[in-house]
Amino acid sequence: MAQAPGPDKRRAILDAAITVFARQGFHAARVSDVAAEAGVAYGLVYHYFDSKDQMLNELFTERWALLLEASREMRQSPASPRDKLGGIASFIIESYRHEPELMKVIIVEVTRAANSFGRTHLPEIRQAYDLIAEIVSDAQAAGDFRDDVDPSFAAMLFYGAIEQLLSGWIFDLVPGTDEDYERAKRLVVETICGGLEPRPVGDAVAG
Predict the structure, then answer these.
(1) What is the pTM of this model?
(2) Are 119 and 86 members of one domain?
(3) Residue ranges making up the domain that contains 170
């Protein structure tokens, strides 16, 4: 039987790392566990990766680059601010729906790991927050959003809501049906935009 070409072996090892890290946790996982999951020799893993740390770094960098690209495209699109934020929320939730193990690894082992991988990747993580803040700032300048809410604070609320949703699905704390995913997309946008969009004058409470 012919051996799979190098890139396919490398991809197989990364895919195996996702499964192992999600199942055992990054710190408890061993390179030998990844090799066994991938069905390759232990030494072959080191032909492609220096360590399991490099595997995690690459898994995060690949996925996060896609998020940043999607966020930039949404910011530059002619869509409304609500639809821009909705597009980014949808991208993240769809990523979890289709690749739950990978998203579990990213959330648990990177973005929440403030003293290790999270700190290493802080510049990339901040870029995602900054893009949300820029969408909010653009909308404020156009008069679509209230100008008394700091854009950076709004970005933290946006990603805080998204992360709590993902954590609920990761740890089976909330239902995760297709209907739940679609409802979550709507609620995240409604919650954030409902606080940012100007209230109609008639809704003001008399003093």
Answers:
(1) 0.88
(2) yes
(3) 58-203
